[in-house]
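Revision sheet: structure tokens.
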Amino acid sequence: MDKAGILLECGLAVDMTAEQVEKLASIADLGSYPEGSVLMDEDEQSRDIFVIHEGLVSFKMKPPAMGLDSAAPGEKPANLEILFFRGIAGELSFIDGLRRSATVVAMDSVKVLRLPESRLNQILKSDPLFGHVFMRNLCAILCKKVRHASEELKNHLFL
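Predicted:
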């Protein structure tokens, strides 16, 4: 699948003109990660968006610190793992500029499109209409994730 098709499939290019889709595709870098590779580390400062279009990734999150004596010496904290494919990662840091909230690891051979924050922000600043459509699409993707998490929480709490 070409870059434009991947961007349409993941939802980032919904309702964009062909010219806008091509503009977005032109800044996207194709990449691949072998099994076990880290796409991004929790707490790192990067702000690129990753579109996972082949393979499976795991989101690993450190539990919150419970105090200095919460873990035995040398004990590694347990991680929460969420597996997914054909989605995006890194959108929170892109939007709010904060550190990464999870480590993303390739569970098998993974292919991605990476949207570099610097190039993406150049387009957003130079083309407000493109920026509006892109950010609306990004918000729609985030809403789906929040709704899914809400359902999971509800099922956990009440079932």
